[in-house]
Amino acid sequence: MKLLGIGSRINHVEYGKGVVTNVSSKEYWVTFIESGLETIAIDSNFEVIEASENEVDTISFYDVEQSLLSILKKWNGIGAPVAIGDKWKGGNIKLEPGLAGLASKDVPIDVFFHKIVMLRDRLRVMEQKINTSNIEEIEKVELQQYITRIYGSLTTFNVLFKSQTDYFVGEKTK
Question: How much is the average pLDDT of 71-77?
Answer without folding.
Answer: 57
